[in-house]
Amino acid sequence: MDQLKGLVSENAYTILNEVEEKRASLIAALQELQVRYRYLPEAAMRQVAARLRIPVAQVYHVATFYSAFSLKPKGKHIINVCLGTACHVKGASLIMDRFKRDLGVEQDETTRDGQFTLQGVRCVGCCSIAPAVMIDEETHAHVRQDKVPEIIKKYRPSSPVTPVRHPPEPSPSSQTSGKPGK
Amino acid sequence: MSHADWEGQAKFTIDGREVVGYKGETILEVARREGFDIPTLCYHEALEPYAACRLCLVEVTTGRRTKLVTSCIYEVAPDIEVKTSTERVIRNRKAVLELLLARAPDASLIQKLAREYGIEKSRYPLVLNDKCILCGLCVRACHEIIGASAIGFIDRGTERHVGPPIERLSERCIGCGTCVYICPTAAITLKDVSKPMPGVHKHPYDYEAPDCSICGEMNLESESKVGEK
Ligand code: SF4
Ligand code: FES
Ligand code: FES
């Protein structure tokens, strides 16, 4: 950007600078949206692009690069089952299996009621309490398979669970705005 | 990088020969001007250097330190010693080519380069068979030269690929074919761009592209291979 100095008028330079600055806020903007919606809706990504005056392609690039961003709605609670070395040795895969079974989802999926997203992570930094499970900001130590239902219950809404019916996932064809696939 | 205090010209050596470079120039620029052969894949004179392919590696000695650098972004400085084909350079370029070959075994340019470096087969398992080597030339040309920014990188790691945002026809693609032209491995074909116009890389479309008014043909895929350098 420095070479531009002198080439363009002071005014234009300030504008360019500003755009540079705004570009830098892309990740912050996406983080905000991720927190607000628990995913990045397409419309929101397009808006960010328009506001920051950067191509949608670049927004999508960043949105798909970082695992902190998700293009599918995430659950209200994020369950991170540690699958790191220490936890693995202590049977983390069994814990993961139990969560899968009890929640009725596979890894990286979200329950139908939108309450939980089940994920695996590599070491959450507390190997001494392996196997560890992190739910949102909370760490659960020495998790045993038979403790899993109890843990899940803690995070479910207190009233008997009447699963919120989610609108059906948009089918791939409607996502490509009705264009026939190849 | 050597951003020492100096202005104007820098005298330094490439493979022992004295050459002159100017402030802000990269080793690659000077080397090419002086007729040294350094292979590149992600470099193009018309675009900002990107240093993605690592093929342009050279050895640079500054003071007592010798290190491997990517010549396409390393700026020249007085008294550096550049070596373009030491044992270490060749060994590392070979490693890069082997990795590229494991990714894009069908790309003829990669095959050719590998052969030049005496590689017949990659030691690495074939992870995915994609002609695209992720050099970013298409993405950068579309952004920097055309100004359309119709395509970009998507995902990361082994999933990383080039495509229009939201994996759908990009309304910004003007079907200019620059990405086809610049792609060193013919990973994008004219068919990708013109048939499902506007869009690149195997994306669905819902209307017929008109046939060429001169040749009457639409399947331009074979022609696009001409761009295979
Ligand atoms: S499609 Fe071609 S130009 Fe684009 S990143 Fe892949 S190899 Fe490079
Ligand atoms: S391996 Fe699970 S916390 Fe370290
Ligand atoms: S040409 Fe320098 S890294 Fe690709």
Write up what this structure looks like:
The complex is a heterodimer of chains A (182) and B (229). By secondary structure, chain A is α+β, with helices and mostly antiparallel strands. Chain A has two domains: 7-72, Arc Repressor Mutant, subunit A (Orthogonal Bundle), CATH 1.10.10; 77-155, Glutaredoxin, CATH 3.40.30. Chain A contains eight helices and four strands. Chain A has helices spanning 10-23, 26-37, 42-52, 56-65, 85-89, 92-103, 148-155, 172-175; strands spanning 77-82, 116-121, 133-135, 138-140. Chain A has a four-stranded mixed sheet, with helices on one face. In chain A, a hairpin with a 2-residue loop joins strand 3 (133-135) and strand 4 (138-140). Chain A is elongated, with a radius of gyration of 22 Å. Chain B has 229 residues and is an alpha+beta fold. Chain B has two domains: 9-88, Ubiquitin-like (UB roll); 137-228, Alpha-Beta Plaits (2-Layer Sandwich), CATH 3.30.70. Chain B is built from seven helices and seven strands, in the order E-E-H-E-E-E-H-H-H-E-E-H-H-H. Chain B has helices at 27-33, 87-103, 108-116, 137-146, 178-182, 190-194, 221-224; strands at 9-14, 17-22, 57-62, 65-70, 81-83, 152-154, 161-163. In chain B, strands 2-1-5-3-4 form a five-stranded mixed sheet, sandwiched between helices. The longest helix of chain B has 17 residues, at 87-103. The relative contact order of chain B is 0.11. The chains are: A alpha+beta (182), B alpha+beta (229). Bound molecules: iron/sulfur cluster and FE2/S2 (inorganic) cluster (FES) (2 copies). The site of iron/sulfur cluster has 14 residues of chain B, from helix 4.
